[in-house]
Amino acid sequence: MKKNSLTHFGHLRSRSSVKIAFLWKGTPLCTSCSGSLTVETALTLPVFICALVLFIFLFHVQQIQLQMELALHATAGHLAQYACLETEDDKKTGALQTVVEFSAAEVFLRTQMDKQGMRADKILGGKTGVSLLGSDLSGEDVHLKASYQIKLPVAIFGTYGLPMQQTVCLRKWTGKRDVTDTGDWVYITPTGKVYHESCECPYLDLSIQSVSLTEIAARRNKSGGKYSACSRCGNMQQTVVYITDYGNVYHGDLECSGLKRTIYRIRRADASDRRCCKKCGKGEE
Fold first, then answer.
1. Domain-embedded: residue 120
2. Checking DSSP bridges between strand 209-212 and strand 141-156, what pairing results, if any?
3. Given the DSSP bridges, would you call strands 228-229 and 249-250 parallel, antiparallel or unpaired?
């Protein structure tokens, strides 16, 4: 009896082994693994593509904001300089003078946008899509406020643009002056060796531009000179650097003191130790 029981158990064991082997043969584990990988790829690939598109879009937004800031600074600087040419009759015109200043601001801004290489196709409405209606040109300051919308890669809830606002405020070049002898005034910088006949001289207007560091070796200033690294900020690890039309160095920091210009308006007689600028005068620099 004991022997038969062992024999019967042996039969059951052998049948179970055959059945397990059959099941193992019919359903390999690799089938379930490949299916899970396909599902994971189908879920993660769209997320990766969306993240890549978002990263590129944010890069474009930062670039447009930087170029718009530079264009606004240059525009406000021009308007601040023109304020010194205002007469008492101009101030009495009031609203009419404000309209003229706004028109000049729009023209200057669009010119500076081109100079900065800004892609207008990234803004809804192009250059005309940038509004300065929120600006305030009255008083002693030039307060520019630019409103525009950056195009979105896809419409979100029926919206095609990302609203942006940037402001710049500069003090006007106003002060006590005798308009009857304007020809006796000249403009100087603290470290310059020449005096300038006009406050709009290219050497006084920095005209800051942003360029890629990889392009700096091939760039030349308007005098034909090469650009070298600024001793203060030129060694910063930046992919975008800043240059001026007549400068000979590039800067890694927009706040560098080399990108700031202090200008004084003095009597011509007080500038006898300086030569006349060759750009805006008849002398040689």
1. yes
2. unpaired
3. parallel
105, part of any domain: yes
* Number of domains the chain is built from: 1
- Contacts of 229 by beta carbon, 8 Å cutoff, 6+ apart: 235, 249, 250
The verdict on residue 60 lying in a domain is: yes
Q: Which residues contact 142 (CB under 8 A, 6 or more apart)?
A: 76, 79, 80, 83, 168, 169, 170, 171, 172
Q: Which domain holds residue 92?
A: 9-175
**Nearest Cα to Cα of residue 146 among 163, 122, 171:** 163
pLDDT average per 10 residues of sequence, the chain (285 residues):
50 49 49 61 78 82 88 85 61 51 82 85 87 82 89 78 88 60 75 84 80 88 87 81 86 82 85 86 51
Q: Name the nearest CA neighbour of 187 among 81, 74, 73, 78.
A: 81
* Per-residue model confidence (pLDDT) at position 40: 72
CA 38, chain centre distance (Å): 42
Hey, what are 145's tokens?
């406020």
- Which residues 6+ apart lie within 8 Å of 261 measured at CB? 189, 204, 206
| Residue 32 DSSP symbol | H
Q: Would you state the pLDDT for residue 138?
A: 77
Query: Do 207 and 115 form a contact (C-beta atoms < 8 A)?
Result: yes
| Mean pLDDT of the residues in the chain | 76
Decide: pTM greater than 0.70: no
